[in-house]
Amino acid sequence: MDREFFASLRDAGNGRHSGLGNAPCGRWGTATSWPGERVLRTLGGASLNAGTVEWGMFKIHRPDPNYVTSERSKNNFKLALKATAVFVGVLWAIHMVNWGLDYSLNRFGIWPRNASGMVGVVAAPLLHSGFAHLFKNSLPLLVLGTGMLFVYPNASARALPAIYVGTGLLVWLFGRGNIHIGASGLIYGMLAFVFFSGIVKRDARGVALSMLVFFLYGSMTWGIFPQGNSVSWESHLAGAVVGTVLALRFKAWDIPPRKRYDWEDDE
């Protein structure tokens, strides 16, 4: 994987913007729109002012267009997509081997409150009950993973491992006495993180991503409630809880340079 991409993730906590936004924050004398604003306009009720998009009662900060549309930003989107696609590819490779050679790897899922079931904290998201299960998880993983890595690269370096491990630990502690497998807990964690990060940061790019994932996957909210024995709703709920907490924890991270005008510097 490209070293610059992961180097940008390590900038977290140093007060620096990530490598996705190293384009200079210039001074702008005229309004310049960017694609995220069109999403907000489509939703209705959005008006544009200097440096902000006013949407109902909320003032949403507009990022510097030079930051958003830079060539480096575009390249890093490709890297985020590549990293997520590699992870999804690994899931498919594991399942193909498990299916083709009949290794019965699903026994390594999370077995709550059993010492031997602790291995499932790491192994469970990599295992799936069948091709339909894996196929159902693949597209959400690709969309949410790419969006999270691209828009919140610094926070993702810490949030993704925390979602992965934290969700598994909660299921091991509080889940039903069945074997739990699948990446759905990770998906719910990313979904909650992306959605609530856009709300608490009030960054136009993050808000647009929040609205997009809510439009695509908002119906998944029902998955956190108890369902049949074949569905690990505990994983869904645990992932959503961990993702929400982490969105609040990292609310001050990955804030892009704000759009500024000449007259703001003259005040």
What would you say this structure looks like, in words?
- The protein has 267 residues and is mainly alpha-helical.
- The protein has one domain (3-18, 72-249): Rhomboid-like fold (Up-down Bundle).
- Helices cover 57% and strands 4% of the residues.
- The chain is built from eleven helices and three strands; from the N terminus they run ααβββααααααααα.
- The protein has a three-stranded antiparallel sheet with strand order 1-2-3, with helices on one face.
- The model is unreliable at 9-35 and 43-48 (pLDDT under 50).
As a whole number of angstroms, the C-alpha radius of gyration is 20 Å
**Approximately how much helix is present in the residues?**
55-70%
The global form is globular
Low-confidence stretches: 9-35, 43-48
Order of helices and strands, N to C?
Answer: HHEEEHHHHHHHHH
* DSSP summary, beta strand count: 3
The DSSP helix count reads 11
CATH class: Mainly Alpha
The CATH architecture = Up-down Bundle
- Secondary-structure-based class equals mainly alpha
